[in-house]
Amino acid sequence: MGQAKIYYDSDADLGVLSNKKIVFLGFGNQGSAQAQNLRDSGIPNDQILIANRVDSYAETAKAKGFHVEHDFATAAEVADVLFILIPDQVQPRVFNEQFSPKLKSDATIVVASGYNVFFNLLKFQPGQDVVMVAPRMIGSSVRSLHQKGRGFPCFVSVEQNGTGKGLDAALALSRAIGATKQGAIASSVREETMMDLMAEQALWPNIIMMFREAFNVLKDAGCSDEALCYEMWMSKEPAEIFERAADDGFVAQLKHHSTVSQYGQLSGSLKLEGGAMREHFKDILYNQILSGKFCEAFSQIEDDLDKEGDTNPLNELYKRSEEMELVKAEKRVRARLAGLL
Ligand code: NDP
User: Fold this and answer.
1) pLDDT tens string 222-233
2) Ligand 1, atom 5: closest residue by C-alpha
């Protein structure tokens, strides 16, 4: 593959959205940010409808002057464009049962994450367009960067081109939410899902494991809880390193460190051949992610994630993580520093 195509404002024509009813299912992190950005881009308020159950999110949308529809069937019937911006794990149930049967046969459906489309968990009609417009930012940043007149990184793709004009719609919608200002990267639900799940299931678990084991070794060698917690993350040094990596370069940021540090980091990392880790990562990518094994296993526990207490599998994992010495030590440090942090 190599180089990706990048789409800018000049590639998108907002005119393709004129007179289209644009429905946002969900007014949470992404829903509230994207709907407000889209309205700021000049899409008339009467063309925008927020579909939300009766609760505080709906109240927030009303307070911001949006039209709100609580009845999902009604929202589905009028939608020319539907942004699905509710949590990924509830999308199949809500979309397939309450939206799909009522949606227009040529509607444009927009997802902000590849997962449900890649694993075929959403039911579309053949004449519909299915596009991904996936900001690489949390909702509050999608909103604040747009308000500052700046853009945000975003992936865009057409996954089903039922009308033959899916790309025009995807680009116009990307521009309307502010995603082509900085350049929206042509991607796919496959690429987005692979990268997301690899980060979540391979890269970060190993980073957590490495912090845990470095902590254990240094603790055994006599380091105090306070010194370790501050040295390793509470000083925010790792956050700063990643910030500089984004600004200056992944390796070039090392130049901000001492010579001892630069030498240690470069010689240490180049010495590690990485073959076993590469095989481990490949195993996760092919046998756990792309094979659908993770998706299948996750589907089976999805309903339990709404439960309270220990029967919720996520709560159970949090409980087990509390056995990590790093977590116990951090708790002690935060208690001792209570009021000072
Ligand atoms: P949120 O958790 O913020 O979604 C909250 C919204 O979903 C509320 O409007 C809530 O309304 C509604 N909702 C929750 N459960 C249900 C349900 N069972 N039925 C109907 N509505 C429900 O979601 P995000 O904005 O975080 O995520 C939306 C999409 O954006 C996802 O696909 C996610 O992967 C993607 N994304 C998210 C990012 C982020 O910043 N978090 C970054 C990039 C992409 P109520 O409870 O009132 O019904």
Assistant:
1) 999 999 999 999
2) 28
Ligand 1: nearest atom to the Cα of 28? 3
Residues 140, 17: Cα–Cα separation, whole Å: 25
Question: Which atom of ligand 1 approaches the CA of 138 most closely?
Answer: 40
The predicted-structure confidence for 254-291, as pLDDT tens digits, reads as follows: 999 999 999 999 999 999 999 999 999 999 999 999 99
Q: CB of 151 within 8 A of CB of 182?
A: yes
Q: Looking at the predicted structure, is the pLDDT value of residue 338 above 90? A: no
State CA 160 to chain mean position distance: 21
Average pLDDT of the residues of the chain: 96
The reply to whether the predicted model has a pTM over 0.85 is yes
Q: Is 85 in the pocket of ligand 1 (CB under 6 A)?
A: yes
Q: 86 — phi, psi (to 5°)?
A: -115, 165
Rounded distance between C-alpha atoms, residue 84 and residue 76, angstroms: 11
Which atom of ligand 1 approaches the CA of 57 most closely? 47
**Does 196 sit in the ligand 1 pocket, CB within 6 Å?**
no
- Ligand 1 centroid – CA 305 distance (Å): 15
Q: Does residue 92's CB lie within 6 angstroms of at least one atom of ligand 1?
A: no
Spatial neighbors of 37 by CB under 8 A, at least 6 apart, are 142, 143, 146, 176, 177, 178
